[in-house]
Description:
Blueprint: H1 3-22, H2 26-32, H3 45-58, H4 70-82, H5 88-98, H6 102-113, E1 118-120, H7 130-139, E2 144-155, E3 161-172, E4 177-184, E5 189-193, E6 205-207, E7 210-221, E8 226-235, E9 248-265, E10 272-280, E11 287-293, E12 300-319
Parallel strand pairs: 1-12, 2-9
Antiparallel strand pairs: 2-3, 3-8, 4-7, 5-8, 6-7, 9-12, 10-11, 10-12
Amino acid sequence: xxxxxxxxxxxxxxRYLRELLLRPGRYRQLWESHAQRARxxxxxxxxxxxxxxxxxxxxxxxxxxxxVLAHQLKDTVGRALSGRLLSRSTLDLFVAAFGFSGPExxxxxxxxxxxxxxxxxxxxxxxxxxxxxxxxxxLGPRRHQTVSLHDHVYADAERKLARTRTLQxxxxxxxxxxxxxxxxxxxxxxxxxxxxxxxxxxxxRRIGELYGTDIHLARSLGLGETTTLEYWxxxxxxxxPDDPDERRYRRAVMxxxxxxxxxxxxxxxxxxxxxxWAVWDGVEGRVxxxxxxxxxxxxxxxxxxxxxxxxVVGFHWRWEPAGAMA
Length: 326
């Protein structure tokens, strides 16, 4: 593991710590109970330091630290949440003091170690484009997070993307979650709803360069509850299959996403000449890195990511000359 990868991992762990402490629920309530004054969307570093200090006072394993005062830990908290300096002992202290759940602890340590199975895009565009800012402004605070996402994509005999079957497990970050947003970079799609979804999609609205609608849930979720959604996206493109935009499938993540699985299945009579797995520099940017892959016996390519953050990833391909396959 290189130093840049380790540094990126520590920074990602710091961002995830901030997300956990800002998320509505017991972690936020714990540090807010120590804050004299709280600002929406901001973490009171002294209040968090007070939680850490209180844990050191009460923990029999913290011998030699029982006289630590909150203000002495304030800078440590600031550095940890920024990811600039997040040591093993500091992360241990956060985990013990706030009592993060098993999966949350696992993800924190996975990020901290900078494992190569985590895709962290740090390019100049990343997902900090104007489109991302406009989407965040329209949608407001996040009310759900995706626990897992599976995109199974099919290309047809005309060398065009035909449809995508998506399985998505979502967790409510607030009480009363009854819908999630669905965003796409074109309005030339048909959205069909299945398991876990209710009724028809909401009206389509334009959000900057994107189009969005709502997927209504079959039942309203309370804080921390999960549900599985299944839906299909069909494409109505009249474009040239040799156009670069018609020869790729990508997933853009504006925040974080765990357990992401992408599979592209090609028609057996129209197989690509070559296929690459790639990471892009944001929605509008160039390919930052790519890896050529080989389709399997089912004429498909597949990639699984345990976790990704602020990334644009997917497959792109090159077609064989027309008529090469009968």
